Recover the amino acids of this structure.
């Protein structure tokens, strides 16, 4: 690499990093407690469940839904109902309209065996929800998500350019060297390089999957346009049904076809994850991988007949798999602890990067930077 | 990890980062595919990276 090429890559690394660093630091700090979201919820807001229930007992969904709807204003609608993946809990999401965002809806919990109403603080309130909202969208909804997605792109560019400029730095020093005996600046520079290169794979995957998650709304829209259009082709002349078959009948049709299906959620006709004419029943598998790769059963909303069971397209699969890879919630508590340690490593890389930038702004260094004949300005004096 | 006297080649610079990058990716992937020993492998690969950072920093001569 010529001096000029190195200087260009340095420029890219410096500016892409500087622009996204403040936001990435915010993401790392809010992300740290979010890694333990589930454990914190367990300690602070777990509902009490009755133990003595005959095996195989299944609550009547229609009753649950009617009960949940009664807790919301008259014109509100059922958006979807979701099963907890560990506990016998069903959450009913009641919304002012089908386009409502998570913060606008009411979430009502029930025992999925007995249909008993559970007193659980709703998952869209409280400190953890605030942190999640801040982490996902800076509390600014979709524009905030897109903004963070753009920061994610800058982060990817900064990682690539960081690897490129790593080479000239390391020409004369062995891998993993941290020179503590020189200046503080060199110590932090070496730490930045060492921690950055050791955790590079993790940083890349968590950053990239985070970017994918910020794109979940467009991905969902593409999916609707692509798959849902196909499903509704035969229904063009019909007005959306007003008399719906019961969710119990819809579920029964699915279970008749796939008896051991593990149901993740049922999306109501007209909701963003269904068509105006169908219930959409989402089924998850039972390994860590297939648990995330949901299959969709499409059920006619009027007759409760099973229309189709289909796989999700590759880009939806990609989105589903990005969630665990971003949050680290797929390998037990120990993986979460390691995730937290790597998150701290990321904070060290970001913090040392800022320190190196601040420390470089002495007049003599700026002079060197502007002098094209000077030796590589950004390399520490050897 | 002492200072080498000669200029290192690209391969010498990037061989350890390459090994660690692959270990990171194995660690990220295997817990997703299954449980049990695959989880343990994941802990070893990713936990190893976190521990390595600490060891390299602490071991450096003051």
């Amino acid at each position: 690499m010529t001096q000029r090429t190195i200087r260009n890559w340095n420029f890219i690394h410096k500016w892409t990093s500087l622009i996204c660093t403040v936001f990435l630091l915010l993401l790392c700090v809010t992300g740290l407690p979010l890694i333990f979201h589930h454990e914190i919820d367990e300690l602070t807001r777990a509902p009490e469940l009755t133990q003595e229930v005959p095996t195989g007992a299944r609550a009547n969904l229609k009753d649950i839904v009617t009960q949940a709807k009664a807790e919301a204003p008259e014109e509100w609608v059922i958006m979807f109902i979701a099963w907890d993946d560990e506990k016998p809990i069903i959450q009913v999401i009641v919304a002012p309209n089908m386009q409502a965002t998570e913060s606008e809806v009411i979430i009502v919990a029930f025992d999925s065996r007995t249909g008993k109403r559970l007193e659980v603080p709703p998952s869209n309130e409280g400190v953890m929800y605030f942190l999640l909202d801040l982490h996902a969208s800076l509390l600014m909804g979709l524009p905030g998500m897109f903004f963070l997605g753009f920061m994610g792109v800058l982060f990817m560019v900064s990682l690539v350019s960081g690897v490129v400029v790593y080479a000239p730095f390391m020409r004369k020093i062995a891998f993993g060297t941290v020179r503590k005996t020189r200046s503080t600046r060199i110590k932090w520079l070496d730490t930045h390089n060492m921690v950055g290169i050791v955790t590079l794979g993790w940083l890349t995957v968590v950053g990239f999957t985070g970017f994918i998650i910020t794109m979940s709304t467009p991905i969902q829209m593409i999916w609707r346009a692509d798959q849902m259009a196909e499903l509704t082709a035969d229904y063009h002349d019909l007005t959306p049904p007003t008399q719906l078959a019961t969710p119990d009948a819809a579920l029964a049709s699915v279970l008749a076809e796939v008896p051991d299906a593990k149901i993740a959620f049922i999306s109501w006709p007209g909701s963003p994850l269904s068509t105006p004419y169908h219930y959409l029943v989402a089924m998850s598998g039972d390994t860590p991988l297939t648990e995330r790769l949901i299959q969709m059963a499409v059920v006619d909303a009027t007759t409760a007949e099973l229309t189709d069971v289909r796989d999700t397209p590759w880009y939806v699969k990609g989105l589903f798999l990005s969630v665990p890879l971003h949050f680290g919630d797929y390998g037990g508590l120990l993986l979460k602890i390691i995730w937290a340690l790597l998150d701290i490593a990321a904070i060290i890389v970001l913090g040392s990067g800022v320190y190196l930038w601040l420390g470089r702004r002495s007049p003599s260094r700026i002079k060197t930077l502007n002098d094209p004949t000077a030796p590589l300005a950004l390399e520490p004096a050897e | 990890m002492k200072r080498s006297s000669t200029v290192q080649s690209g391969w010498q610079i990037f061989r350890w980062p390459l090994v660690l990058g692959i270990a990171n990716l194995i660690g990220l992937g295997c817990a997703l595919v299954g449980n049990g020993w695959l989880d343990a492998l994941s802990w070893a690969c990713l936990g190893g990276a976190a521990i390595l950072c600490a060891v390299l920093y602490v071991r450096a001569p003051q």
Summary: The radius of gyration of chain A is 26 Å. Chain A has two domains: 3-37+136-214+330-370, 58-119+242-301.
